[in-house]
Design a protein that fits this description.
The complex is a heterodimer of chains A (208) and B (54). Chain A is α/β, with parallel strands linked by helices and 208 residues long. In chain A, strands 4-3-5-6-7 form a five-stranded parallel sheet, with helices on both faces. The model of chain A has no long low-confidence stretch (mean pLDDT 92). Chain B has 54 residues and is mostly beta strands. Chain B has one helix and four strands. The chains are: A alpha/beta (208), B mainly beta (54). At the A-B interface, α3 of A face β1 and α1 of B.
Chain lengths: 208, 54
């Protein structure tokens, strides 16, 4: 009885029920672990796979949304070299008005003023610090804060806010960006309740 | 936004490459992080609300 009550309380605290995170595979990490991410790991499975603590993922999304909402949306840049992260960031840009950069990150976009698509954001959001290493280096050069979705194999070098999650899964990325979009809109005061946000998680999912 | 003068963790000036300034994600306190602390992923704690990052 007490256990059930505790579970319900925990679920109400979270943005979506814990089962939704589980079914999307947000908690699934990799077989590698870095010391930077060890605080976000819940356990190790028998097959050697590290499991991410979804409560910390939830907390990370809330903090990231509050953080991003403080900036003017056209001054925020979301980056994804990963294919499964490209549609979610497109949708994020569509709903929030943030700048997005999908696919290859051409060197110099943030650092070379002579570059055609030179852009000076105030904050950057990375889908995978390993894949988006060029964007991370350039953000480091110009001294802007960095938010990143980190898996168990990522380091948090030059990252100012971590969202611990599976950053390789199609459905995991869709859920994370859907929640982030919803929370940003709520923080900005554009929506007041969940019902006002009509987009579905499936809309954020990339095609196979 | 006002710029922080010193790193919140080590107290070093923020003139070197890699240093940054931002508002605390949960409150409005200005946080500065130097390039060294960011490179080594040293934890920072907001003096106002106690938020621990990264």
């Amino acid at each position: 009885m007490a256990e059930e009550k505790g579970k319900k309380e925990r679920e109400t605290d979270m943005l979506v029920p814990e089962e939704t995170y589980m079914t999307s595979g947000v908690h699934i990490g990799t077989r590698q672990k870095t010391s930077d991410i060890k605080d976000f790991i819940y356990k190790v499975r028998n097959d050697g796979l590290y499991i991410i603590d979804v409560k910390k993922t939830d907390e990370g999304i809330r903090n990231a949304a509050k953080f991003l909402a403080k900036y003017d949306p056209p001054k925020v840049l979301a980056v994804s070299v990963r294919q499964y992260g490209q549609k979610p960031i497109k949708k994020l840009g569509e709903y929030t008005g943030m700048q997005i950069l999908e696919g290859r990150f051409r060197p110099g976009i943030l650092t070379n003023p002579n570059s055609k698509d030179f852009f000076e954001p105030e904050i950057i959001l990375l889908t995978d610090p390993l894949a988006d290493i060029q964007a991370l280096h350039e953000a480091e050069n110009i001294g802007i804060p960095v938010i990143a979705l980190c898996d168990t194999n990522n380091e948090t070098r030059y990252i100012d806010l971590v969202i611990p999650t599976n950053n390789k899964g199609r459905r995991a990325l869709a859920l994370i960006y859907w929640l982030l979009t919803k929370e940003i809109l709520r923080e900005q005061g554009k929506i007041k309740s969940d019902e006002e946000f009509t987009a579905k998680v499936e809309d954020f999912e990339a095609e196979i | 936004m006002k710029k922080a003068e010193k790193c919140i963790t080590c107290g070093k000036g923020l003139l070197e490459r890699g240093a940054t300034t931002f508002q605390c994600p949960t409150c409005d306190e200005i946080i500065g992080r130097c390039g060294g602390c960011r490179e080594q992923s040293v934890d920072y704690i907001c003096p106002k609300c106690g938020f621990k990052g990264p």
